[in-house]
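Quick one, T. Sequence first:
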Amino acid sequence: MGIPLSYMGIPLFAGQVAPELQQLAARARAGDKQAQLDLGIAFEEGHGVEQDLGKARDLYRLAASDSGGPVWVYVPSVGNGTKGRVMQVDRGPKMSGLAEAKARLDLLARISE
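Structure tokens:
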């Protein structure tokens, strides 16, 4: 697994796009909900990027969804006679989705109906 070269089509290495856009994309990729919302707005309105409502919708979904907290995952047997088991994994601090992202997502859904 290498270093990602882009996020949502925006290069993550210096010199390809405006530094502010590059930093916003890097923060959005890292899970920053406000950055996901801001980047979604940029794609919705075509500010600094080509307008793309699909990417805007994807980013709004990320920003609107709750994240973090504990989850339970199944870890299968490794084949040496041991049994699989269920483990709790901490996904970091619990964060609520952003209301503005939910509202923009709803608006895009109504527009495309």
